[in-house]
Amino acid sequence: MARISLLFALFGIYKFECSLMKRIFRYKKNTEYGNTNFNFQNPFVEITMTEQRTKFILTALAEIGVAEIPGLEVNPQILKYFHETGFEYIKDETISWCAAFVNWCCKKNSLELAGDLMARTRLKIGKRVLQPRIGDIVILWRESKDSYKGHVGIFINQIKNNIYVLGGNQDNMVNIKSYPLFRLLGVRDIFNVPNMV
Q1: Contacts of 118 (CB under 8 A, 6+ apart)
Q2: What is the pTM of this model?
Q3: How far is residue 174 from each of residues 31, 143, 170, measured CA to CA in Å?
Q4: Domain membership flag for residue 184
Q5: How many helices (H) and strands (E) does the chain have?
Q6: Strand ranges (E), the chain
Q7: Residue 47 and residue 39: Cα distance in Å, rounded?
Q8: What value does the CA radius of gyration of the chain take, rounded to a whole number of Å?
Q9: What CATH number does residue 185 fall under?
Q10: How many angstroms separate the first and last alpha carbons of the chain?
């Protein structure tokens, strides 16, 4: 019975990802004809998908499947997340790389980078928002809410008391993973923010 429930849950995520991709590519098609005010509707929030937000999401989606290599070998793509964002001294995957992944996606889209590899640093970048929207940055606590440790990724969806996050170093790879809502520390909008708060 548990396996059947899991299959239904996975199918639901797959259907959502397909819907997401279709709508993003539909947006891209519209922008080719000069329409940049395409309204994107996820199951909970209606937003306007700007070209910058769309490209940012597509950059991250294209990395799904990048994973650590068991043993001593290092995945060069993961090292690239570090090296192309100012952390050339990192030589392996023993350092948590969720923040490096978000930084790399930001750099590819001319968005603000964090100055370190601490997930919670992202709580100071962008504008605080109360309602997560697809493409926003989500910061979660890890081990303890009072700890300095955290996790950072890209908000994809919310289903009841779970949020779906597109991020790096999630089970040692880039994927979309569910996290309990109570672990959420903050949500930041990093797009076209003239005054950071």
Answers
A1: 99, 148, 150
A2: 0.76
A3: 28, 21, 6
A4: yes
A5: 4, 8
A6: 39-41, 46-48, 127-128, 137-141, 150-159, 162-167, 175-180, 184-189
A7: 6
A8: 17
A9: 3.90.1720.10
A10: 47
Q: Each residue's pLDDT tens digit in the chain (197 positions)?
A: 444 434 444 445 555 555 555 555 444 444 333 333 323 334 334 445 688 999 999 999 999 999 999 988 999 999 999 999 999 999 998 899 999 999 999 999 999 999 999 999 999 999 999 888 999 999 999 998 999 999 999 999 999 999 999 999 999 999 999 999 999 999 999 996 654 43
31 in any annotated domain: no
* Domain count for the chain: 1
- The CA distance from 84 to 103, in Å, is 9
**Widest pairwise Cα distance in the chain:** 51
Which structural domain range is residue 133 located in? 52-189
Q: And the tokens for 13?
A: 């995520």
Domain membership of residue 46 (yes or no) is: no
Is 14 within the bounds of a domain?
Answer: no
The DSSP code for 43 is: S
- Residues 157, 98: Cα–Cα separation, whole Å: 18
